[in-house]
């Protein structure tokens, strides 16, 4: 094989690392290194002399590590063998994402949810020798794809930790984590920076674009119901119990109506109305101590009474189910 006396980068501009195809080199030859590149001689499992941008003549004195290993004679043109790697020190942007769901316990509701997360990150090679030894040569990774596959598991392993940290710091639920994407991104970069440094890499930017949930997951649906019930309680205040009693009565009416006709439905609805009136009376007495405890007359403007009348009209076929639902929503929204 011919001895190479001029070594130059011939890879693609977006390649993270590129290996010169020949290892037959000689002193007195030239090594050309472009901007944002670093050339490193590699021999017998060791990263030796490195060169930054410029044109360099290979001679004894400027390749001391290689000279000591190969025992090159002084002066002249002497052939020797060594690998030459070019490492691109530009900034690279890659995507990351979870291929399979990650279990994460919701600290607020003590329920485990399976999440998927996606985002992107930017990095550059900071220590070319460390990168070459720990990433490239350690697994024969010389393509961008193979390097990407190596880095992603390091990200995935840290996702649960930094997302849990953000959730706890904000006293929130897992399902609300997307409200804190900026904070999650910052926490992710802090968490992952030491991991990247082990491989000679500088993690410049890390972004969490989205955290997704399986909406058919029963645990996810449980949390959504808890949140919806809490919102309803906060909105209705004291009238929440009245509405719940009415809902129970309406459900009983529908169940009894299936087997006992209109009479059964009326009994069920009456039960719900009576319970709602009792709850309403108890609340009114608490708010008005002077009010008579024997007062049982229902307020015609009471939502439970108004909805009860609507149900009676529905049972008699005087209004359609669609009209019933529409009017019921109007009444409840006015509470």
Describe the structure.
The protein has 335 residues and is an alpha+beta fold. 46% of the residues lie in helices and 25% in strands. The chain has eight helices and twelve strands. The chain has helices spanning 64-70, 128-139, 144-169, 181-197, 218-236, 240-287, 303-315, 321-333, and strands spanning 4-8, 17-19, 24-33, 37-43, 46-51, 54-57, 79-81, 83-88, 92-97, 102-106, 111-125, 201-213. The strands form three sheets. Strands 1, 3, 6 and 7 form a four-stranded mixed sheet that branches. It has a four-stranded antiparallel sheet with strand order 2-8-4-5. Strands 9, 10, 11 and 12 form a four-stranded antiparallel sheet that branches. Helix 6 (240-287) packs across helix 7. Residues 282-296 have low confidence and may be disordered.
Q: Briefly note the structural class of the backbone.
A: alpha+beta
What does the main sheet amount to? 4 strands, mixed
Number of strands: 12
Helix fraction bin: 40-55%
Fraction in beta strands? 15-25%
Order of helices and strands: EEEEEEHEEEEEHHHEHHHH
Query: How many alpha or pi helices?
Result: 8
Give the C-alpha Rg. Answer: 36 Å
For the termini, the CA-CA separation is: 91 Å
Mean pLDDT: 81
Low-confidence stretches: 282-296
Outline type: rod-shaped
């Amino acid at each position: 094989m011919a001895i190479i006396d001029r070594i130059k980068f011939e890879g693609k501009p977006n390649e993270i690392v590129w290996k010169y195809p020949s290892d037959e080199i000689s002193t007195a030859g030239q090594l050309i290194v472009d901007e944002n590149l670093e050339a490193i001689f590699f021999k017998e499992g060791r990263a030796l002399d490195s060169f930054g941008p410029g044109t360099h003549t290979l001679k004894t004195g400027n390749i001391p590590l290689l000279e000591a290993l190969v025992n090159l004679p002084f002066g002249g043109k002497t052939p020797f063998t060594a690998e030459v790697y070019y490492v691109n020190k530009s900034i690279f942007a890659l995507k990351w994402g979870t291929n399979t769901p990650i279990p994460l316990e919701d600290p607020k509701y003590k329920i485990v949810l399976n999440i998927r997360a996606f985002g992107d990150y930017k990095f550059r090679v900071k220590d070319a020798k460390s990168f070459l030894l720990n990433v490239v040569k350690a697994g024969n990774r010389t393509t961008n794809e193979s390097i990407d596959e190596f880095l992603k598991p390091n990200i995935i392993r840290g996702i649960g930790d930094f997302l849990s940290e953000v959730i706890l710091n904000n006293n929130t639920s897992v399902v609300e984590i997307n409200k804190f994407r900026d904070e999650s991104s910052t926490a992710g970069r802090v968490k992952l920076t030491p991991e990247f440094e082990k491989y000679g890499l500088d993690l410049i930017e890390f972004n969490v674009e989205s955290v997704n949930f399986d909406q058919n997951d029963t645990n996810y649906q449980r949390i959504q119901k808890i949140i919806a019930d809490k919102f309803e309680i906060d909105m209705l205040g004291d009238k929440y119990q009245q509405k719940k009693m009415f809902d129970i009565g309406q459900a009983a009416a529908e169940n009894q109506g299936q087997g006992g006709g209109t009479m059964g439905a009326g009994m069920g609805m009456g039960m719900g109305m009576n319970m709602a009136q009792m709850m309403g009376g108890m609340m009114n007495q608490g708010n008005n101590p002077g009010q008579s405890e024997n007062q049982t007359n229902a307020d015609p403007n009471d939502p439970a009474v108004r909805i009860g009348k609507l149900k009676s009209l529905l049972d008699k076929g005087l209004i359609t189910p669609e009209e019933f639902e529409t009017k019921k929503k109007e009444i409840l929204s006015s509470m």
